[in-house]
Amino acid sequence: MSKQSLVTSENFIHAISGTLGGVFSITLLFPFETARTRLQVDDRRPSKLSVKVIRDLISEEGWRSLYQGWRSLLVSLSVTNFVYFYVFYGLRSFNWSLSTDDHSFLENSNHVQNIFTDLMNGAIAGIAAVVISNPFWVINTRLKLQGVKLEASDRRSEQHSKYHGISDCFVKIIKAESPVALYSGLLSSLILVSNPAINFMIYESLKRNILPILSNFVSESSLYFCFGGTSKLVATVVTYPVQVVQTRARAGIGEKSNLGAIKIRRPNIGFWFRGLESKLVQTILTSAIMLLTYEHIRSLALLLLGFI
User: What is the pLDDT of residues 43-73, one digit of tens each?
Assistant: First the structure.
């Protein structure tokens, strides 16, 4: 694969479409993201439905608390989605994972090849996105929890510093902790590349195999929405315990080891799935709306530029 083949207008369209889709979906559903984060890091707060957590936050801290950290999240999500969509669809376009001289093998195992290719491309795209965007996600988590007193089983309490925007948070983390702190949760994030990899593998498989059949009876927009939600449901349930560890590491809770891994004392089954309901509501709808928006923006852009 040549360098020139990776830098194309079509790959750029994929990246921009995925970025805009993510920004639109997370803006609509950000209160659920806030509820999920609070449940994951605040052991004092009892587990309950996300709607009730949102209601409690409005009562305790005001409605503005629901969108605390929203701007930094848009930056984090935009960086992540741009890198992920660009790399995933760039690699996918050229069948990078299973390039081989054994063409007869590829012809006889095309379905398996596509699934494996999507999974590998998703993992590579995820690693690239994690390495580039992890500092932005650490900053987002700190801004989202700034000024909030947390009760954590790992420590008696947590009181976060007061930050004044993304750049101020960046500087204070480096000064007060170290540059390494910007990569808190990196280990769990690298493990979690399995989440989008599984998500996109299932999504693309549904598009290839189910869309041609059901599109005669159901609108493609409805199918994109359902495929996006279904694929994210599976990916989220499988990887959720690691997401709990990741969020607590980014928030600075727990005994830290190298690469942002943390040690958790006295965990139980309920601990590993705190906030799952709010995460499922938020992430399924976010993925469904994001991929639906992505498909329409991509199709429109490709049409206008003469690719289709």
Answer: 677 767 778 888 888 888 888 888 887 888 8
The residue type found at 100 is T
- Could you say which DSSP state residue 158 is in? E
pTM above 0.85, yes or no: no
CA dihedral over 74, 32, 81, 290, signed as positive or negative: negative
- Give the Cα separation of 99 and 41 in Å (integer): 44
- Residues 1/38, Cβ–Cβ less than 8 Å: no
Inter-CA distances, 108 with 20, 93, 105, 112, Å: 38, 20, 5, 9
Tokens found for residue 238: 């499988």
Give the closest residue to 164 by CA, choosing from 195, 185, 188, 139: 139
Burial class (CB in 10 A: 0-12, 13-18, 19+), 11: buried
Give the CA count within 13 Å in the CB-facing half-sphere of 160.
25
- Using the CB atoms, write b or e for 257-285: b if 16+ within 10 Å: eeebbbebeeeeeeeebbbbbbbbbbbbb
| In the block, residue with structure tokens 């938020």 | 282
Q: How far apart are CA 290 and CA 275, in angstroms?
A: 22
pLDDT digits (tens, 9 = 90+) for 246-260: 777 766 665 554 444
